[in-house]
Amino acid sequence: MKNIIFIAPPAAGKGTVSDFLVSNYNYEHISTGDLLREEIKSGSSLGKEIDNIISKGGLVSDEFMIKLMEEKLAKLDKNKAFILDGFPRTIKQAEKLDEMLITNKVTNNIVIYLDISLDDALGRVMGRVICPKCKRSYNLTNEKLKPIKDNICDNCGVELEKRSDDTEETFKVRFDSYLENTRPILDYYKDKGILKWVDATMNIDNMFQIIVNEAKND
Ligand SMILES: [Zn+2]
């Protein structure tokens, strides 16, 4: 399978697709969020600097992210394909990533963009509910993920609670700023001819199939 650089706005389903590929196609999921958390937990000097930046509400610089990714890519199991999630976020990171992949002789890569409109994404996020007792998640906007009885947990019979911290307004801001920041990166990969555009609102099994077909070696 090809390595996948995954780009998707909030609520497009990147987590679900990643889990599917990890379980069924032995992918390694490299998430920058996880890498940052691991680095902080390790207590390394880099980790301490990152912790300091994040706790002040700052953004981790390109240099830090690139360094983290360099370390991770150098340690990769070459027999496994990987999913890159959360990197690159800037053009500089994208250019550096190209260099790193060449250095590590990783040549078999595609970029997948999961396309979803703000309205569809908003519907998904606002429909997310959780059972306060057994912690089972539901989505009121998805036929497959709905509880049997309106807003009641199938297991416990208790009332479900909203799961998202987002209000409609904060989600819109988050979504729009993601698209704005990501556009140059999409153009970058489009120019290179490795960008695959996938409709994230289709039936989930069809979407899995399309992504698997794109990721299969020619
Ligand atoms: Zn429950």
Structural topology:
Blueprint (H helix, E strand, L loop, with lengths): L2 E5 L6 H12 L2 E4 H11 L2 H11 L6 H13 L7 E4 L5 H13 L5 E7 L2 H10 E3 L6 E3 L21 E2 L5 H25 L2 E5 L4 H12 L3
Parallel strand pairs: 1-3, 1-4, 2-3, 4-8
Antiparallel strand pairs: 5-6, 5-7
Bound molecules: zinc ion.
Zinc ion binds next to loops.
General description of the model:
The protein is an alpha/beta fold and 218 residues long. It has a single domain, classed as 3-Layer(aba) Sandwich (Rossmann fold). It is built from eight helices and eight strands; from the N terminus they run βαβαααβαβαβββαβα. It has helices at 14-25, 32-42, 45-55, 62-74, 91-103, 118-127, 168-192, 204-215; strands spanning 3-7, 28-31, 82-85, 109-115, 128-130, 137-139, 161-162, 195-199. Strands 2-3-1-4-8 form a five-stranded parallel sheet, sandwiched between helices. β5 (128-130) and β6 form a beta hairpin. The chain is globular. The mean pLDDT is 92. Zinc ion is lined by residues 131, 133-134, 136, 153, 155-156. Residues 131, 133-134, 136, 153, 155-156 line the site of zinc ion.
